[in-house]
Amino acid sequence: MKLFDLSLRINGFPLGEAKNVFSKITNKNSTDYENYLNERKTAIVNYHLKHNAFYKSFVNNNDTSNWNNIPILTKRDLQQPLSKRLSKGFNKKEVYINKTSGSSGDPFIFAKDKFCHALTWCGFIDRYGWFDIDFNRSMQARFYGIPLNKKGYYKERFKDVLSKRFRFSVFDLSDAEFAKSLKKFKSVPFEYINGYTSAIVQFAKFLERENMVLKTICPSLKACIVTSEMLFDTDKTLLEKQ
């Protein structure tokens, strides 16, 4: 059973419709795709100027007929209540709402309509497939935080089960904790690692100190994906080595 796909559908995300649209986009030839991008950029800007008071105020009197004249929107510009940023026709009950970790110094709450969120997942599924990773089948070693309150903790654990992933602690990066993690890699056929850059880099440094290469212990590993924080070239080299 494709539990990951099912979990999206249960939560009201139209994955089937999104897959059809995503397929049409990715099957365009280079010329058609370039035209499509230009058409969508214009349509998106015009839509927000018409339906989003926050964006219209942000653009102010800039000439939007030239893409290069449109001011760049940053996370800092978005530091205001979500209710002031939603476009006409949308409310908090009908959209997907999430928030960033704040690692950049500018955390913020954002919202997407449910079709947009489903389309985002189609993009993830496609790109992960480049490395033979299947969201419904491949086991993920997840180095992420987790809510410490009881309800939030078990909610995330349940989501981990549905998404075929095991979550490692990022609150304790001691050698003793990494040794426990290592035992898990010996017994579970993880296909990829995903998580905070700093935690995964510290795990790689532990492996280096122990003179170990993780893939010799867990030969099923195919890829390592980092998120949230900057990955420097030296750290990338370390991850590839260990």
Describe the structure.
- By secondary structure, the chain is an alpha/beta fold.
- The chain is built from ten helices and six strands; from the N terminus they run H-H-H-H-E-E-H-E-H-E-H-E-H-H-E-H.
- It has helices at residues 3-10, 15-26, 30-51, 53-59, 114-129, 150-162, 175-187, 197-209, 214-217, 233-241, and strands spanning 95-99, 109-113, 140-143, 165-168, 192-196, 223-227.
- The strands form two sheets. It has a four-stranded parallel beta sheet with strand order 4-3-5-6. The protein has a two-stranded antiparallel sheet with strand order 1-2.
- Helix 2 crosses helix 5, helix 3 (30-51) packs across helix 4 and helix 8 (197-209) packs across helix 10 (233-241).
- The longest helix is centred in the N-terminal third of the chain and has 22 residues, at 30-51.
- It is globular, with a radius of gyration of 21 Å.
- The mean pLDDT is 91.
Key features of this structure:
242 residues, alpha/beta, two-stranded antiparallel ribbon, 10 helices
